[in-house]
Automatic annotation (TrEMBL):
Protein name: DNA polymerase IV 2
Family membership: Belongs to the DNA polymerase type-Y family.
InterPro entries: DNA/RNA_pol_sf (IPR043502), DNA_pol_Y-fam_lit_finger_sf (IPR036775), DNA_pol_Y-fam_little_finger (IPR017961), DNA_polymerase-Y (IPR050116), DNApol_IV (IPR022880), Rev_trsase/Diguanyl_cyclase (IPR043128), UmuC (IPR001126)
Family matches, as CDD domains: PolY_Pol_IV_kappa
A GO molecular function held by the record: DNA-directed DNA polymerase activity
Pfam families given in the database record: IMS (PF00817), IMS_C (PF11799)
Domain UmuC: 6-157
SUPFAM superfamilies found in the cross-reference section: DNA/RNA polymerases (SSF56672), Lesion bypass DNA polymerase (Y-family), little finger domain (SSF100879)
GO biological process: DNA repair; error-prone translesion synthesis; SOS response
Top-level division of the source organism's lineage: Bacteria
Cellular component, GO, one term: cytosol
Length: 419
């Protein structure tokens, strides 16, 4: 197979840069995005001038102001940020039709097919993209380039964000010299708990994993984490080696207003709550997975069902609006379950449909202070990635093990935890 050329383009201090472009009067001031009226609220983004004075994302507005009293705190305008993000997608689409938004300020581009149109060089495309985006939005972008998505992502996070010029390529020629010496926590999807496990296994750098024979790494992981850790081992080993067959999938995040999943059912099979719960869970899991893939959370959960006992029939469609958007299975599931339990007339159901609407970009979740929830969100995304890479069957095993998995799985389990 021909080697692909994939980019991850990341907007520097995205929200703050948009606000700076919109407010020329703050040009030379430290600017952050957050709620100026709530000192306990969180800083969502800070411009480089603010960062140089110690302001960091995710700290409280009050703490940031204490460090940097002249900080200009601007209320977030998520709709604007999403519009700018979509506008950036359009710019990228003038370079390739394969553009996949990864988050509001990060997008993957597969430029393999367009290299010859732009002088044959990925670096040249990257520089043109940077110039175009800067000119039309005021946002400076950094571009990581690699033969796989995972390498492009790690090229951005670990290198392109740090080098002058903001463009960096990780390929099989420099993965060993550049990526492998990095400490293991700089590898994608490795957080503190896995860092500790790896340290315990004597693995301190990304190269320590990459250089191991996969079989040997699996053996060590089983010893450290239990005998069902094979998929997890494979995931980390592939990541360390830059292996990632997943394609850049175009067309996400646009035009989506509704995410739904439903089923027509064989009559008589779904009579009791015990019959229906697993089906509902299945629908909820798929809705949530799609929502994560599109980068949307929803606040409105709807359940529609049709039921009949052969004599009478009935149907309902009801919805509930949550106080914050979600795509977490246990939250969507709890809402769906209580709606269903309330309106179901206890006849065998012939149709069940779950819908998520009131969508907003999933970056907005950072607005709240539920740190555990943020962990759950990271968990669910990790699990999706494993599923994408190793197939749906992998997930039952993998999700219960991933750093991320256990509490999440338990929370999402049917029965008892729903309501
Ligand atoms: Mg960024």
């Amino acid at each position: 197979m021909k080697e692909r050329v994939i980019m991850l383009v990341d907007g520097l201090s995205f929200y703050a840069s948009i606000e700076k472009a919109a407010h020329p009067e703050y040009r030379d001031k430290p600017v952050a995005v957050g709620d100026p009226a709530r000192k306990s609220g969180i800083i969502l983004a800070a411009c480089p001038a603010a960062k140089s004075q110690g302001v960091t994302t995710a700290e409280r507005v009050g703490e940031a102001l204490a460090k940097c009293p002249e900080l200009v705190v601007i209320r977030p305008r998520m709709q604007t940020y999403i519009s700018v993000s979509l506008f950036m997608t359009e710019i990228y689409e003038s370079f390739t039709d394969q553009v996949e938004p990864y988050s509001v300020d990060e997008q993957f581009l597969d430029v393999t097919g367009s290299l010859s149109l732009f002088g044959g060089s990925a670096d040249e495309i990257a520089r043109q993209i940077q110039a175009r985006v800067q000119l039309s939005t005021g946002i400076w972008t950094r571009v990581g380039i690699g033969p796989t998505k995972i390498l492009a992502k790690m090229a951005t996070d670990n290198f392109a964000k740090k080098v002058p010029g903001g463009v960096y390529t990780l390929s099989k020629d420099n993965i060993e010299s550049d990526l492998w010496p990095l400490p293991i926590h700089q590898m994608f999807m490795v957080a503190s708990r896995m860092t500790r496990h790896f340290a315990h296994m004597g693995l301190l750098t990304i190269g320590d994993i990459a250089r191991l024979d996969l079989g040997e790494f699996k053996r060590r992981m089983r010893y450290e984490m239990g005998k069902q850790s094979d998929i997890q081992a494979e995931y980390y080993w592939q990541t360390a080696n830059g292996i990632d067959p997943s394609p850049v999938i175009a067309g996400m995040r646009k035009q989506i207003k509704v995410i739904n999943n439903g089923r027509a059912l064989r009559w008589g099979k779904y009579r009791t709550m015990e019959d229906i719960e697993p089906l509902m869970l299945e629908l909820v899991i798929e809705v949530c997975r799609r929502a994560r893939r599109y980068g949307y959370m929803g606040r409105v959960i709807s359940v529609a069902a049709a039921e009949t006992d052969g004599y009478r029939s009935s149907s309902f469609g009801r919805q509930v609006t949550l106080f914050r958007p979600t795509y977490l299975e246990h939250e969507v599931g709890a809402a769906a379950y209580s709606l269903f339990a309330k309106y179901w007339r206890r006849m065998p159901i012939t149709h069940l449909h779950i819908t998520l609407t009131g969508l907003s970009a999933d970056d907005v979740y950072q607005l709240d202070l539920f740190e555990d929830r943020e962990k759950l969100i990271l968990r669910s995304k990790t699990i999706d990635q494993i599923k994408d890479r190793f197939g749906p069957a992998s997930i039952v095993r993998a999700s219960s093990l991933m750093e991320t998995g256990q509490a999440y799985e338990r929370a999402a389990q049917i029965g008892g935890h729903w309501a």
